[in-house]
Amino acid sequence: MAVDEIKQQVQGQKKLWVETPLRESYPLSQAAGCRIFLKLENLQPSGSFKSRGIGYYILRRLEELSANANADDDDKTPHVFSSSGGNAGLAAVHASRTLGLPCTVVVPLSTKPLMITMLKAAGAYEVVQHGPTWKDADAFLRKDVMVKAGSAAIYAPPFDHADIWTGHSSVVPEIVSQLGGEAPDVIISSVGGGGLFNGICQGLDAMSVDTTTLLAMETEGAASLNASVEAGKLVTLPGITSQATSLGAVTVTQRTLDYALRPNVRSVVLPDAEAAMGCWRLADDERIMVEMACGVNVALCYDGRLERVLGRRVRPDDRIVILLCGGSNVTFEMLANWRKEFGYVEERRDSGKGDVHVPSDLTAPNGH
Prior knowledge:
Blueprint: H1 3-12, E1 22-25, H2 26-32, E2 35-40, H3 50-67, E3 79-83, H4 87-99, E4 103-107, H5 113-122, E5 126-129, H6 134-145, E6 153-156, H7 162-169, H8 171-178, E7 186-190, H9 195-206, E8 213-219, H10 224-231, H11 254-260, E9 265-270, H12 272-286, H13 292-298, H14 305-310, E10 319-324, H15 332-342, H16 359-362
Helix pairs in contact: 1-3, 3-4, 3-7, 4-5, 7-9, 12-13, 12-15
């Protein structure tokens, strides 16, 4: 496929991501004691926010190929290569397929069969498993897999590139516009390698917003940002032990740490049990299924967690935006298993005798 043809195709394409709804959640607002808005990034084409950053990144690389093309490139079709624990790979596959390009994804051995099947069903050219962590998979992709494509190869990292952050930053003006032109009081976002978090900070800076508190959420066993904040320098975890595998980056970007040290940012770590609780309660209260990496954000709405993290009383008119980042590695069976395994986190709650406020109060595990 000629690069000029690719250029024409890109120029004529619709965006590889969509403007997602910002919906006020009355059950979660009732539970948290303030106004909770869900930014529904789970409705992106790939099922997660990754469509923004990966989509924007691939478009920029195609523009570069077009600008630097020569006659020898006319018979070469660009081939996208992605290293991912799952969701970034899905975003790369969806974007590539929309553009008519092949996409090979390399995932670590810890990636569940469900995600492998989803990548193949989405149209991946090839899915390769290698190494215990994303870092190992990424090294294998770049050193052993991509060489076969030569100059036609487009490497799509999952989070560590300025163009990816720029793509993710597009979520901020959407939120502000959807709130009537005003910035939210708080944005809650999960952090893996830092791509989404960097994009949010970049977007707020671009709009000169410095009054919004950012809660950077991680789970125990995947808290590389929190470890770095505590140390005041980048820390590399020895491995990932959290079940929230989408947060499985053993180190964050330097830019992520720089942003996290700002006074309006708080690094928050919750155990897997509370992240899982956020998933099943969101399913009961809003009929939305998400991964643990997203559930960790929702968990703050329940049982006073938000006030404890903010260190102040929440006000009824506080506008809190949760980046419902999505994630495709979740099923009804997984939700049921998480409730069975982690139901103890709600044992302290009342049985609901005359004190039922939201649907998930009635469906809590352990008979509550």
